[in-house]
Design brief:
This protein is α+β, with helices and mostly antiparallel strands. Helices cover 51% and strands 9% of the residues. Strands 2-1-3-4 form a four-stranded mixed beta sheet, with helices on one face. Strand 1, helix 1 and strand 2 form a beta-alpha-beta unit. The longest helix has 31 residues. It is globular. The protein binds glutathione. The site of glutathione has 13 residues, from helix 1 and helix 3.
């Protein structure tokens, strides 16, 4: 293992999946350079971005150590796990708490994010907005919100007593609850968690990266 910290380049925009990574970088107080990739201007399809992630999506993290090829990581969940494991923070290395943390991380990665993104498409972005698509996509999100709310009624954070990668992955999507026609007032424990996590300076800093980015 290289003892020197890598040079880090983060490619992202003012989007929930990107902000998972910028929050994590800020929580870990790591040095990085942020590159704005405006997805509304289709910058994710520029050849230099496709060379990093052939899927043409952000976020992307590139870590470079002198003398070895850069490590390119895409998919927000993979980036969160990489950073957590290499810094021994926000994801236990083993044991039951690691497994529980991963279970909640997977719920957030595979349901909260994708379902909220689809709901946003049908509630706002699509040229046509059929009621059946809106009802279906919002219902999927409602089911996850109810799950998270019930969980957070029992414990302060998704994995238990400690803030973890599961909370970091969930936060930027919950911040866009309006996209999926959700009102936090309907979810008392989730709303209290949202206030708790919003108070973290690293979360506030991560939500502002890249500087000046707007999802218009
Ligand atoms: N599963 C991926 C999803 C990444 C993703 O969909 N990113 C969005 C921004 S939040 C994006 O790049 N959209 C542009 C596109 O799909 O062309 C992850 O978690 O990183």
């Amino acid at each position: 293992m290289n003892p020197e910290p890598p040079i880090r380049h983060f490619y992202g925009w003012a989007t929930p999946n990107s902000q998972r990574v910028s929050i994590m970088l800020e929580e870990l107080q790591l040095a990085y350079t942020a590159h704005g990739i405006n997805i509304r201007a289709r910058a994710q399809f520029a050849p230099e971005i496709l060379a990093l992630n052939p899927y043409g999506k952000i976020p992307i993290l590139v870590e470079t150590h002198a003398g070895v090829p850069p490590l390119v990581i895409f998919e927000s969940g993979a980036i969160l796990m990489h950073l957590a494991e290499h810094n021994s923070r926000f994801l236990p290395a083993d044991g039951a708490l690691r497994t529980t943390t991963l279970s909640w991380l997977m719920v957030v990665l595979t349901s909260l994010g994708p379902f909220s993104g689809q709901a946003h498409h049908w509630t706002e972005l699509a040229a046509e907005q059929p009621a059946v698509a809106q009802t279906h996509s919002v219902a999927l999100v409602t089911r996850v919100y109810r799950l998270l709310d019930a969980r957070l009624a029992e414990m302060p954070y998704l994995a238990g007593d400690a803030y973890s990668v599961a909370d970091i992955a969930a936060y930027p999507w919950i911040a866009r609850h309006g996209w999926a026609w959700q009102a936090l007032g309907d979810y008392k424990a989730l709303a209290a968690w949202f206030i708790r996590v919003s108070a973290r300076p690293a979360v506030q800093a991560g939500m502002r990266v890249p500087a000046g980015a707007k999802l218009d």
